[in-house]
From TrEMBL:
It comes from Flexistipes sinusarabici. It catalyses: ATP + protein L-histidine = ADP + protein N-phospho-L-histidine. It comes from the Bacteria. Transmembrane segments: none annotated. This is histidine kinase. Residues 12-62, 138-213, 265-308 form the PAS domain. PROSITE patterns: HIS_KIN, PAC, PAS, RESPONSE_REGULATORY. GO terms for molecular function: phosphorelay sensor kinase activity. PANTHER family: SENSOR HISTIDINE KINASE (PTHR43065), TWO-COMPONENT SENSOR PPRA (PTHR43065:SF42).
Amino acid sequence: MDGSKNSKYYEKEYTLKEIFDAIPLPLFYKDTEGRYLGVNRAFGEFFGQPAEDLKGKTVFDIGREDFARVYYEKDSELFNNPGTQLYQSKFKDNKGNVHDVIFNKATFKNRKGEIAGIVGVVQDITERMKAEREVNEKQRQLETLMSNLPGMVYRCLNDFDWSMIFVSGGSSNLTGYSPSELEENRVVSYGNIIHPEDRGSVWEEVQRSIKENDNFVVKYRIITKDGQIKWVWEQGVLVGRNTEGIDVLEGYITDITESKKYEDEIYTYKIFMDDAPDAVFWTRKDGSFAYVNKTAADRLGYPRDKLLEMTIFDIDTELDEKAWKSIWEEVDNNRNVTIERRHKKSDGTFMPVEVSVRNIEYAGEMLHGSFIRDITQRKKEEEERRILNEQLNQNSKLEAIGRLAGGIAHDFNNMLSVIMNYAELGVLQTDKTDKFHEYFDEIGKAARSSAEITNQLLSFSRKQRGFPRVLNYNDTLKNIINMLNKVVGENIRLEWRSEEELWYVKIDPSQISQILTNLCVNARDAIGQEGRIVIETRNAHVDENYCNTNMNCKPGDYVMLSVSDNGSGMSKEIQEKIFEPFFTTKKNGEGTGIGMATVYGVVKQNGGFINIYSEPGLGTTFKVYLPRQKEVDTQMDVKAGKVEGNGERIMLVEDEPSVLAVSSKMLEKMNYDVITTISASEAMEKAKQYLNRNESIDLLITDVVMPEMNGKELASKLSKIHPGMKTLFISGYPKSYITDKEISENQIYFLQKPFTAELLSNKINEVLNDGNK
């Protein structure tokens, strides 16, 4: 071979080597023994060794044995079946990194046509495999997600059949059709399972949204494979066009049958709630309102949209967040809670309400459903009942105190009779120059003053009737107004305002004086230094509504007498006790506590009632109501004169020895023949003795209340023994005690203890000279 030929040969070999090294994929060729005859630069770099160092080596020399064994076996397969070979395997580089690779091999022949070795390309697919694994994992996750969704994901054409390109596995549960049955309309088109009544509206809504480049959301009905009708909710979007120019849609469809049913029920419930007579609130945990009915808005005086912008704290201004949290927890624990609150209305007033609360779930949110009842009327009735109960308790207490006062007065009167009568005897039997004469006189005065107190007690107990007559308040006031001016003092202005055509009342004139004097004294003491007292009289009609809250009155016509002052006023506690005997706010020794009790007793005794209007610092008004009388009395007062006896025989029956002794002495002083007896049985026995001696008894003077037999029974029995005998009843109790025992007032003579000798002598003379009794 000459030089030029050698030069061309080497040039050609060099060029081939450069081309071989320039190829970026690892290339190799090896002989039938597996020894590398040549590798390119990329192969050396891939294995981490210079290409020249790999010549003559086998895979066992340059790689991990387990991998080399695979390569060797694959080479053997190729030699046994010459041709091409493609397979995927692993490879570990000199840094220890394992690669995913593809070997693409082929056998080659020598000039003799014999298999001379293998030539191959190594392709590193590690990154591609990694990407594929990531894609597969994402695909798996997506498929898992779609299969777990309560509905189906789809890709479809925007045609009237909604021809499905892809459908997720959820279609089976939703429609009864598998994805393969829906895709490409193999069994049925999705458009055909939409309810016929809804197909048009669904198509129009989707086309409208596409035209406006917006997502579409539709609710409609479908007919499942087994014939069920379901409500579905669908959301989708236009994603592009296919090769045929048809719009492609992607979206999601889910079953809302139950929620639609619940939504319809809620809608019906709301309609029903709007017509409910009670207010209804659905309240969130933060206190905002999810729903309020029409009644709630009307009751509170707000437009409904305005009320929905408010919170529970706006209408229940006494509720703070801590209390609200407590109520919420209580409802959670007990399910149903009923409480009373006050809700603020738009005009600023408050309305008492009863709130019944329970948990409700709405649109996936836990709320408090509250039924709110206006209890204004109920609270009013409860307050009226409370007032009536207080009045009843007060009346019962005053009745009990009255009975006690009457009993005390009776006992006092017996004792005062002894003191007063002995004092009178002492005065009669001593000379005026005798110091004891003065002592007896002072004792008598003290006894008479004490008798006034017992009379006031009897007025409170309504047993002291007096001498009632039909009269005009104004006429009586004219006579006592000057006296009242002196009572209240110069620093207090007394005003009198009267109605001209005033109706008549029936009452003892002295009791009017008692009422006004005590009320004016009370007003004077409340004023202190300077002030004003107003006395007013006017006609008044009291109706049933008024009496419903004032149990002490009856409907009808009344004459009202009021006494008002601008003094210190009274607390509620004082008002509750003001009419109790001996109750006083004055210092010790400044008052007896009998005056207001007397007023109460006199008013009650005459069929009337009295009300107090007072607040601390704002003065007080007492209003006395007495029943109207339409007939005027014409009877005249008759005064008896003092008369001595003429030896008439009097039987005196008294179970109190001291009263018996002093009374008998007084009668003897008056020139009467006195038979003293300490009991009814003794009186009966002595009456029989006198009858047996043919001696008559002219007059029986007997106590009313005695242990063995009361005075009425004794008088009845003695009148059978001595038919001509007349009777005079005496008692520490008032005359009404006797007349209440089924005896008319005009059928008896009565003298209340304590009495003076003059009163006794006049009364005896009156009885003895009466031809009827």
